[in-house]
Design goal:
Layout (H helix, E strand, L loop, with lengths): L1 E3 L6 H9 L25 H4 L7 E8 L7 H4 L2 E2 L8 E2 L14 H11 L3 H4 L1 E10 L6 H14 L5 E5 L5 H11 E2 L5 E4 L12 H12 L13 E5 L2 E4 L4 E2 L8 E2 L7 E3 L3 E3 L21 E2 L7 E5 L6 H4 L10 E6 L13 H11 L2 E6 L12 H8 L10 H13 L14
Parallel strand pairs: 2-5, 2-6, 6-8, 8-9, 16-17, 17-18
Antiparallel strand pairs: 1-5, 3-4, 7-15, 9-10, 10-13, 11-12, 13-14
Bound molecules: aspartic acid.
Aspartic acid binds next to loops.
Length: about 425
């Protein structure tokens, strides 16, 4: 773990440029500034000069493209496979290289390449893991959630650096596992490594830290949820989806408006934020912090394909250890009822054994109404659960969480996911 204390260099000028004038006025709800972590080597210049100390932010590195070295792209290795002319990233640059990536080096890289970060906060970096995000799943989500849970009182805000491929799953997982955490946790990453020209990493990091520390300067936005910041938008973490493999605006939130848009200024959509206190009559959820640190990973996403017979194609999933299915039906929750395809008998046999089924849609947005069609209502009668639409990423994680915490109903919203 490495701590970095922000110098005062050009703080006010820079911040004024980035955010509009920052005010030293007391926030609407005075935010409790958390003392820098004990590993912090020196005192913040702000605190020694009588100014309000900067907020403290823990950057948790988990891997992905942002921290990759450019050699990965310069001298790609030939793939030892039958794929002619294929190349892969060099080992130690794009893969699992926890041993070679030191937090000190990473922090130094961050503050050298993006010195503005220090004007927003006292930073501390933890390299929790260093994985391509396709290697991240329930085990790693639990590690991240545990780290955040243990360090909750030490920092004002948290940033998770993560690969883009499964970022939406991780954001969903953290939001559900740490429901009521009530401090900003922002997940970000980039399409190109920080060290490359034209990388989007710099902007994404600055945008992320801007949002993570927004409670500490005017207009004092209290972000109390897990969000995903990428390509100029801040999205609710459990509503986000990766929609492009290549463009910089790689994420979207088809069922929920962005929490903020970051352009020349930062346009916050206050009413869209998850509220834990009644501020100015804005709708709020009063919910105590409830960490749930267990997940049952035996969950699959199962799209209904026209003409496919589930008995033949999927067989007895329960007998093979699957305990939850996110069933992706058509439209409002419809599925075929021909004899050959037999979805209802198959669902019945799975339900009888104890399978939990969450019925959702292959559509990205709109409302679910499985009761409007014969098979949809039969599925509900069998005990499939449906409700306001969750993203498939969020639905699988919620199912994992509910299976591990049987008293938590799938249909109960715990982090703005429904
Ligand atoms: N494969 C990378 C990952 O998700 C892609 C990225 O970071 O953009 O880890």
């Amino acid at each position: 773990m490495v701590a970095f204390t922000a110098p005062s260099v050009a703080r006010s000028q820079h911040v004024a440029r980035c955010l509009g004038k920052r005010s030293s006025a007391v926030p609407r709800r005075p935010l409790r500034r958390t003392a820098p972590a004990t590993t912090c080597a020196s005192k913040s210049p702000a605190s020694t000069s009588g100014r309000d100390p900067l907020p403290s932010v823990l950057i948790i590195h988990t891997g992905g493209t942002l921290g990759m070295q450019t050699e990965a792209f310069d001298e790609p290795e030939k793939l030892q496979s039958s794929v002619q002319g294929a190349v892969v990233f060099k080992e130690g640059t794009g893969g699992d290289y926890t041993k070679t990536l030191q937090p000190g080096k990473l922090l130094q890289n961050l503050v050298t390449t993006v010195p503005e970060l220090q004007t927003f906060a006292n930073l501390e970096v933890k390299v929790l893991m260093n994985k391509d995000s396709c290697q991240i799943g329930p085990k790693q989500w639990i590690r991240m959630a545990q780290e955040l849970h243990t360090r909750r009182d030490e920092f004002d805000a948290f940033v998770i650096v993560h690969g883009t491929d499964t970022m939406a799953y991780t954001a969903s997982a953290l939001s559900l596992m740490l429901s009521g955490f009530a401090k900003p946790i922002i997940v970000t990453g980039s399409q190109l490594p920080l060290s490359m020209p034209r990388s989007d990493a710099r902007q994404n990091l600055i945008d992320t830290i801007t949002c993570a520390t927004a409670g500490f300067s005017a207009p004092h936005i209290q972000l109390e949820e897990v969000a995903l910041c990428f390509g100029g938008v801040l999205l609710r973490g459990n509503r986000a989806r990766k929609t492009s493999a290549t463009i910089y605006s790689a994420f979207d939130s088809p069922t929920y408006p962005p929490l903020a848009r970051l352009g020349v200024g930062v346009e916050w959509r206050r009413r869209a934020l998850l509220q834990y206190e009644d501020t100015d009559g804005v709708a709020y959820t009063k919910r105590a912090y409830t960490p749930r640190l267990k997940l049952d990973p035996n969950v699959i996403r199962l799209p209904i394909v026209p003409g496919c017979d589930p008995k033949k194609v999927y067989g007895d999933l329960y007998a093979r250890g699957v305990r939850g299915i996110v069933l992706e039906a058509f439209g409002v929750g419809n599925m075929p009822w021909t004899k050959e395809t037999g979805w209802i008998p198959w669902l019945r046999s799975q339900r009888k054994q104890g399978m939990v089924i969450y019925l959702t849609s292959q559509c990205e947005s709109g409302e679910l109404h499985p009761e409007l069609y014969r098979t949809g209502s039969l599925a509900l009668e069998l005990g499939a659960v449906s409700g306001p639409m969750m993203t498939p990423e969020c639905a699988v994680v919620k199912l994992m969480l509910c299976l591990a915490h049987p008293n938590l109903p799938l249909a109960e919203p715990i982090a703005g996911e429904l």
